[in-house]
């Protein structure tokens, strides 16, 4: 079994071009307002990032995750990993290349599940970058990690569905032109049934879709909306993927999307490690540089080892997706491990920087605030641990070995 993550020359060239574009064009352009809360002018902010999107398209660095026939770069998931990690060196990088969540996952979903008419109306504007979208599944009244418990419900009324319910943490809702809304349509289905939910395409704004507030989080109010849905009417033709397929559609969307998050988190972890080492090499205390002190060396070593593991896990999981193999266990493992490693590595970087790291004079404080959500976004740690354990036990029962649940590797 050959495992070779060496990039083909043409893909190595793409990585070089992405890195150059991000480092030499994007980062200098947004350095004064990379945090939207500190932007001098909203108009200047919008104008700058739209200009950068135009430059990305002109450079051929647009839609790295989409097939070439749909205007994308046609990269596999292994190649996408290096693009996402380079782009995520700045918060705005993935958005400028039009490969940021939630639009990225919604593009995949529409491409796979949408009718020709739905692709024309909803997918193409996303690909062109002229519209934005959101994915409305999570609810305050039930556990977000168990979408079979969703209470938002849709009742058929002639050729329409009448939808009522409550959603929150719906990222991008206030900027979205449409939502992929998950609602229960099979009201008599028993609790836990996976065929009870249906996905609807909802044009925004629309009567019955009430954006109550942006939920303020540890890193401020950044577009995670609470939505109350009251007698929202949606035509039957707006069902995406067929009635009762909402759960399957959601899982299809979330699998690769989890790995894309990991690709971006690796970039942030690497940035934190770079900053940690740079600080250790330039800070003198108690007779020597921090880099010469064993306690600091251990922080660096632990971070380097974890980052190495993160990269290998993501690349291996990506290779399984590219080969059409079952990737669920590997993606769950990667999502859990990378999210936790990101938190630990950024925390260590803050520690090495001392009070400076706790301040907002470096990006570490904001990175740490953003990192914390990684441990429950797209499935909490404990849910992934449960699924990993279930699949490990199932593998042993089926074969007498747990090898298939630990990557199926030849050792």
TrEMBL record:
Domain of life: Bacteria
Keywords, in A-Z order: FAD, Flavoprotein, Oxidoreductase
Gene Ontology MF terms in the entry: acyl-CoA dehydrogenase activity; flavin adenine dinucleotide binding
InterPro entries in the record: Acyl-CoA_dehydrogenase, Acyl-CoA_Oxase/DH_mid-dom, Acyl-CoA_Oxase/DH_mid-dom_sf, AcylCo_DH-like_C, AcylCo_DH/oxidase_C, AcylCoA_DH/ox_N, AcylCoA_DH/ox_N_sf, AcylCoA_DH/oxidase_NM_dom_sf
Domain Acyl-CoA dehydrogenase/oxidase C-terminal: 244-391
GO terms of biological process kind: fatty acid beta-oxidation using acyl-CoA dehydrogenase
Listed cofactors: FAD
Coiled-coil ranges per UniProt: none
Any one of the GO CC terms: cytoplasm
Stored Pfam families: Acyl-CoA_dh_1, Acyl-CoA_dh_M, Acyl-CoA_dh_N
Domain annotation Acyl-CoA oxidase/dehydrogenase middle: ranges: 134-230
The Acyl-CoA dehydrogenase/oxidase N-terminal domain, residue ranges: 9-129
Subunit structure, interactors included: Homodimer.
Similarity remark: Belongs to the acyl-CoA dehydrogenase family.
Protein name, entry field: Acyl-CoA dehydrogenase
Source species taxonomy: Bacteria, Bacillati, Actinomycetota, Actinomycetes, Streptosporangiales
């Amino acid at each position: 079994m050959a495992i070779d993550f060496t990039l083909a020359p043409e893909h190595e060239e793409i990585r070089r071009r992405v890195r150059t574009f991000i480092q030499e064009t994007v980062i200098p352009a947004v350095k004064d307002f990379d945090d939207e809360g500190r932007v001098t002018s909203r108009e200047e902010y919008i104008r700058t990032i739209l200009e950068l999107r135009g430059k990305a398209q002109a450079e051929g660095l647009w839609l790295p995750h989409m097939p070439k026939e749909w205007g994308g770069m046609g990269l596999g998931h292994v190649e996408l990993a290096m693009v996402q990690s380079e782009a995520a060196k700045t918060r705005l990088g993935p958005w400028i290349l039009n490969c940021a969540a939630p639009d990225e996952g919604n593009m995949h979903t529409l491409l796979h599940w949408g009718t020709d008419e739905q692709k024309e109306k909803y997918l193409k504007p996303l690909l062109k970058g002229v519209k934005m979208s959101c994915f409305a599944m999570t609810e305050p009244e039930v556990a977000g990690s168990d979408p079979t418990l969703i209470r938002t419900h849709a009742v058929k009324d002639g050729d329409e569905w009448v939808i009522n319910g409550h959603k929150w943490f719906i990222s991008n809702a206030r900027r979205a032109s449409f939502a992929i809304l998950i609602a229960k349509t099979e009201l008599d289905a028993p609790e836990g049934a996976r065929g009870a939910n249906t996905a609807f395409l909802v044009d925004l704004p629309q009567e019955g879709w009430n954006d109550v507030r942006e939920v303020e989080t540890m890193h401020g109010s950044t577009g995670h909306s609470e939505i109350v849905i009251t007698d929202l009417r949606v035509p039957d033709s707006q069902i995406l993927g067929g009635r009762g397929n909402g759960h399957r559609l959601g899982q299809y969307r979330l699998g690769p999307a989890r790995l894309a998050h990991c690709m971006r988190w690796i970039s942030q972890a690497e940035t934190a490690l770079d900053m940690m080492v740079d600080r250790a090499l330039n800070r003198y205390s108690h007779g020597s540089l921090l880099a010469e002190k064993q306690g600091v060396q251990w922080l660096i070593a632990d971070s380097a080892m974890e980052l190495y593991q993160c990269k290998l896990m993501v690349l291996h999981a990506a290779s399984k997706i590219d080969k059409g193999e079952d990737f669920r266990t590997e993606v769950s493992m990667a999502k859990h491990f990378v999210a936790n490693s990101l938190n630990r590595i950024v925390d260590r970087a803050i520690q090495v920087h001392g009070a400076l790291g706790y301040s907002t004079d470096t990006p570490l404080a904001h990175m740490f605030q953003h990192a914390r959500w990684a441990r429950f976004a797209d499935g909490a740690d404990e849910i992934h641990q449960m699924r990993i354990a279930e699949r490990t036990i199932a593998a042993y029962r089926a074969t007498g070995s747990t090898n298939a649940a630990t990557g199926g590797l030849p050792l």
